[in-house]
Amino acid sequence: MRDLDGSRSSLTNASLYRQSNHLARYLVSQGIKKGDIMALIGPNTLENVVGMLAILSAGAVVLNCTINTKNALDVENLFQLTNTKLIIVDPGSNNSLLDPVKAMLEHCNVQSDDKREDSQIKVIFLRKTDVKGFSMTETLNSIFLKDIKNVELPTTYPEDPAVIFTTSGSTGNPKLILHSHYNVSSCPFLWIPTSVDYDIISYNDRPFSWAGGNPIPTILKSITRVFMDLAITTSGKNANFLWQVVKEERCTDALFLTHTLQDLIALPPEATDDGFRLHHVATGGQMIDRYYTRIIGRFCHAMLVAYGTTECIPISRHGPLTKGDRLKSGDVGPPFDGIELRIVDDKDTPVSIGTVGKVQVRSPYLMMCYFGNEKLTKDVFTNAGWIRTGDVGKISHNGHLFLLGRETDAISRGTRKVYPAMLEHMVRKMDSIKDVCIVAVPDKRFYEEICVCFLPSGNINSNDIQLYCEQTLFKTNTLDSLGEMPTYFLQFEEFPQLANGKTNRRAVAKDATTRLGLTNTRNLEDV
Known about the structure:
3 domains, 24% helix, 7-stranded mixed β-sheet, alpha/beta
């Protein structure tokens, strides 16, 4: 693990096993039983890895939680819904997250110095803390001093529940997605090609609480993982430091978020003059187009585009793409081995090759269920075991999946469905565009209209983008005369983000509606 001050800490697999095994025995000694749910709270740290592996070794289920003081009631409801038995907390290096952690715990039914009832949830801090009210709780160091070697750990099986991931909440309240031990340990979602002939050192700073950041697969494959706190790279100010870390740690491959790729591409040419190149860089999570291929040759030898969802984990991968290869927008490649893809219409009937429809997946790695929500689970699965991803796309004649956007993002302009992702791809081709988010705003005649919200990186304004769209989109008239030409263009300073780093489209749409002075003909919270 690396920090912004240049400090470095590490953990071998042997040390990780010893520490997590000891903590697991302690959890069992405290009454944790196989199948119990335990919350894990904190940033990406080595202590967090120990905590996660210990929970799994104790036969319990990891409930990944996001520190959220604004919705403390939601956190309390989450613990009640899952019947959480114990909370493991890492407040971060230098206890940087101690205040929000305390504020969150104060709203929950947890044990403290003053109250230690059996009905309350016990709290374990993974490092020493001086927070008032919790000074008597166990810490990792104090647990290591206990003689508990005779405590037996339960036997776990591939089909046993292991981890609950929470979604970003981009479609409303976050969903609780339960996966088995088999799913989180055996899935082929290794974005690095399996045919490499070198020892892999991978950089991946995605949160451990995300399916794409889960550390268990790399641990089981004995792959060295380098990471930092995600806040370091999301700021947009530390791209040069990130690249220095990647070089100093002699990383061979990296999984970068798209905004991190943008920051790297913006670095001056001399940043890569020393000739260091990664073997592969992988990315995903939103529409990927040829703009991102600028990293090939400069930061890496090859690029991969990965596609997965929290419910499905691995779905497909495109690449490796090397210098000169053409990347078509939305191309996420063929499915991984053992995974089936199909495109269907509104009645779940498969459509022909090349036809746009709804993406469905069937694989051995699908989630077990939406925890605590039987209706939602039933709605997302078909009778034949296919899962409805909520994505819109098509399958090409060479078997590649092309994504066009989310069903929920579709803009209903009259009788036409307009998918923002493809329009965003077009606008991103313009010079001086840092980012773009196209959203629906209310309209009395057509129900919804198209609004282009953009972040400039140079000298560009709304009129420039409008003229570009007119020249690009209206070369010929469309059959229904509605077309996809946006009606509104708004410049933003920053886009609000969800916890997973993606743009909060609801917040952007709400802000755009307010700024345009439009009348809400519907509830934007239901978009």
